[in-house]
Amino acid sequence: MILHTVYDLSALGVWLEEQGSRPDLVQAIRRAADVSSAHRDLDEALLALRLLRRLTSGSDETPLDDADLTTIVGSLMTTAIILYARATDTPPIDRRPWFGISKLPQSLRDVHREVMRLRNKEVAHFGKGEPVDGAPLLAEAMVLRPFDKDHPIGHLSSRAHNRAALAKRAEKLVERVLEIATRSVSDRHTEVFTALTQLAQNHDPIMTHLRGLPLTEPRLLAAEAHSQEGVTSSNSARNFSRVAVVEIHDDPSSDDEAELTS
Question: What is the pTM of this model?
Answer without folding.
Answer: 0.75
